[in-house]
Amino acid sequence: MEITNTTGRRKTSIARVYVKPGKGVIKINDKELGVYFVSDIHQTTVKQPLTILKAETNYDITVNVEGGGIKGQAEAVRLGISRALVEINSENKPALRKEGLMTRDSRMVERKKPGRRKARRKFQFSKR
């Protein structure tokens, strides 16, 4: 079996995920998972598809992620891993879909409009 390559996106984060059979090592931007994502919540988010399928020690995962913030990057990596596991074995799809891991979260920041302070917030009105 060779390397499986997929992409995950969330907000402005883009994660390129490479999955191959191995011992369960997860490297993100050439750093260990615990070094790159210091928070336990983000580490759990990244490992969620592997935990659901009980495959934590079956694959070595290498990720290149850029853009956005920490949470967006963690969720982009999660989507990329989910897509890779489905590409490896299509029987994984119903379990991951049931947990909502196969759907790309399309919510983005709304752009700022002219004549407004932010996207929807107006400037303060002064009567006098």
Which descriptors apply to this entry?
alpha+beta; Ribosomal Protein S5, domain 2; 5-stranded mixed sheet; 34% helix
What features would you describe in this structure?
It is a single chain. Helices cover 34% and strands 23% of the residues. With 128 residues, it is an alpha+beta fold. The chain has one domain (4-98): Ribosomal Protein S5, domain 2 (2-Layer Sandwich). A five-stranded mixed β-sheet has the order 1-2-5-3-4. A hairpin with a 2-residue loop joins strand 3 (26-28) and strand 4 (31-32). Helix 2 runs parallel beside helix 3. The longest helix is centred in the middle third of the chain and has 19 residues, at 70-88. The protein is elongated and about 70 Å long.
Topology:
Layout lengths: L3 E7 L2 E9 L4 E3 L2 E2 H4 L3 H14 L5 E8 L3 H19 L4 H6 L30
Parallel strand pairs: 3-5
Antiparallel strand pairs: 1-2, 2-5, 3-4
CATH architecture: 2-Layer Sandwich
By DSSP, the count of extended strands is 5
Number of alpha- plus pi-helical segments: 4
Mean pLDDT: 95
Structural class: alpha+beta
Beta strand %: 15-25%
Largest β sheet strand count, sense and barrel closure = 5 strands, mixed
Biggest sheet strand order reads 1-2-5-3-4
- Low-confidence regions: none
In CATH, what is the class? Alpha Beta
